[in-house]
Design goal:
Blueprint: E1 3-7, H1 33-43, E2 47-51, H2 60-69, E3 74-80, H3 88-97, E4 104-108, H4 123-134, E5 138-141, H5 148-157, E6 163-165, H6 177-191, E7 196-200, H7 214-228, E8 233-235, H8 248-258, H9 264-278
Parallel strand pairs: 1-2, 2-3, 3-4, 4-5, 5-6, 6-7, 7-8
Helix pairs in contact: 5-6, 6-7, 7-8
């Protein structure tokens, strides 16, 4: 069984203003379940996790849960929420009352958009992280490399929170060995915390979009396996954002090629079991 632990869906007219950037023109259109299904079928993917798309408002959750409710492959939804919101518990309860609310498996704030590298250390944010843990949800974190140290501290401070690090913490793959060196220390600190898992996702768009090679990704993937172990890593396509650099089959193929030698059990973890366990998808 293959689980894609990270993809998006959106209607471009629904307020995704970040898509207005000129370099994002190739993905400035709607991507809906009917667009996703043939990609999954062709790649042999069985289940997926639908992740919030950068709209950063609570109304998006109803759309995403609705997509999931009407699409068998989507096994869970990671919706947006503000961890510093004093009404976070009410927001979570409201999400769960929506049609498809039983498919809510996690929350994701856009931490990468915060200028403060120590944003996750703020008392209001920490209180929100404990609320997420108490609700039995995972926390997806999309962060810059300079924010990884705060991820490690948050994981240590809230040990019962399942933290999922998106895109391996967004290493600057395009910078080659310099990018690897800047990322290696912080990612090791994050991996030392047992309640953190990480997604092997979003890597092709951290490389040079029009001329990346598997060899560019391999040192980062190898380091991730060495630090986290296969049992704490999961495949994610980051579709359709990945289309800026590669189509769905190319992303999946590149990860398979970039991985070091693994046992069958370890490969099963990366391509399905870790996501199933972390997001509590059941079988």
């Amino acid at each position: 069984m293959i689980v894609d632990a990270h993809h998006h869906l959106w209607r471009v007219e629904d307020g995704y203003r970040w898509l207005d950037s000129p370099d994002l023109a190739p993905i400035r259109r709607s991507f809906l379940p009917d667009d996703l299904r043939p990609e999954l079928t062709a790649a042999g993917v069985d289940r997926t996790i639908l992740v919030e798309g950068g709209r950063c408002d609570t109304a998006e959750a109803a759309l995403l849960l609705g997509y999931a409710r009407g699409s068998d492959p989507i096994a869970g939804v990671v919706a947006w929420a503000d961890p510093a919101d004093p009404a976070l518990a009410d927001t979570i309860a409201g999400y769960r009352r929506l049609p498809g609310g039983e498919l809510l498996v996690g929350l994701r704030p856009q931490v990468q958009a915060e200028p403060d590298p120590d944003y996750l250390d703020r008392p209001l944010v920490r209180r929100g992280l404990r609320t997420i843990a108490d609700a039995g949800l995972a926390l997806d974190v999309v962060v810059r490399v300079d924010q990884l140290a705060a991820v490690a501290r948050a994981a240590r401070d809230v040990p019962d929170l399942r933290i999922v690090l998106d895109h391996l913490g967004k290493p600057q793959i395009r910078d080659g060995l310099a990018g690897l060196a800047a990322w290696a220390g912080p990612i090791s600190a994050v991996a030392a915390e047992p309640n953190v898992t990480a997604k092997l996702s979003g890597l092709v768009t951290e490389a040079v979009w029009d001329r990346w090679q598997v060899a560019d990704l391999r040192p980062f993937v190898t380091k991730a396996v060495a630090r986290f172990g296969a049992q704490r890593l999961m495949f994610g396509s980051d579709w359709p954002v990945c289309r800026l650099a590669a189509d769905y089959p190319a992303v999946l193929s590149a990860l398979r090629e970039a991985l070091p030698p693994l046992t069958p059990e370890e490969r099963a973890a990366v391509f399905g079991d870790t996501a199933t366990r972390t997001y509590r998808l059941g079988r």
